[in-house]
Give the backbone structure.
Amino acid sequence: MPSTYPAPRKNVLLLSCMDLRLLDDIVRFMHRDNLANRYDQFILAGSSLGANLHGAWNEVFFQHIETAVELHGIQDVYILEHRHCGAYEKFLGDEGTFDDSTEDQKKEQELHKIHAVELAKRIHSWSDAHQYTLNVRTLLMDLRGEVSILEYLPASPNV
């Protein structure tokens, strides 16, 4: 993955999906991003979608961010989505189901970006309200472990 965002200098909180197929790929990606032993991993089915749809999950996620800031001094949050996500299919039905056509791949990427950026904006609002500085990177992994950036949202400069 080409570097299209500044490399984190501090510890990171990683939100990822529970998909068993990608656990090793996630670890490899975090190591490639120079984050070996420098990240907390929080797992929700559907990653950002799970946090956005389920109030209790959202509450626990933000409690975890606060704990990660206080204990590990995180300054960055990675929201790692992945293609062909069973949780997207389960939670959204046909809207969250995609084939391998170029058209569906674009739709899938856009849907993941919508949900990831929505959560990223809520993370920024929360961090501003708590006077924390948190950069957010939204990412999409394919089933071969390749990662592309959806959007990089740096922390608000006024914190």
In short: The helical segments are 23-32, 48-53, 55-72, 86-92, 102-129.
